[in-house]
Amino acid sequence: MPFTSVRRRGLRAIVRAGLLMVLLLSPAAASAIPGEGAEWQWPVSGTREVVEAFRAPAHDYGPGHRGIDIAANVGSTVQAPADGVVAFRGVVVDRPLLTIDHGAGIVSTFEPMSSDLSPGAVVLAGDDIGAVATGGHAAAGTLHIGVRVDGVYVNPMLMFGDVPRAVLLPCCDAVTPGGEPAGTSP
User: Fold this and answer.
1) Is residue 70 part of a domain?
2) Which residues are within 8 A (CB) of 180 and not within 5 positions of it... i.e. 6 or more apart?
3) Does the model's pTM come out above 0.85?
4) Range of the structural domain that residue 89 is part of
5) Which residues have a Cβ under 8 Å from the Cβ of 60 and sit 6 or more positions away?
6) What does the DSSP 8-state code read for residue 2?
7) Beta carbons of 95 and 54 less than 8 angstroms apart
8) Residue 75 is part of a domain; what is its CATH number?
9) Is residue 180 included in any domain, yes or no?
10) Is the pLDDT of residue 127 over 90?
């Protein structure tokens, strides 16, 4: 693959990440994202245990983990973390899953999970939406939760209020265009 193609894809990923940050940090978006005020409830009873954390891919088709896997016994009841409408229920490749559209461009997916709900069903936070099943990449005894905001995967822990905001700290001494330390005169 030519270097310019790789570089162009890398730049696109940086631009996409920047746009997502603008989306996540803008006041209008902040009120639409449940992690900013109205936190989602944990979808299974018991201790909150993340077995495998979110790892953002470098680009759309790159390796990563586009969600979190949480500890949940096979057969455990899963509750809706927030209000929404069932957008999809079915089997994809080898795993049963359910997708909920929460509005404002926010969509969550739970897998492997069996459910009797049909697309179009309205769910409220805390409603039973299915049971932990087996299949797919998630180890038995775990439930994978994926969250997309306007089609971009984000760390689901943001929705549960468990990811502190990043704080940017100064890393270097400020330097003037002439190369002198800031605050000094040549």
Assistant:
1) yes
2) 186
3) no
4) 3-158
5) 13
6) -
7) no
8) 2.70.70.10
9) no
10) yes
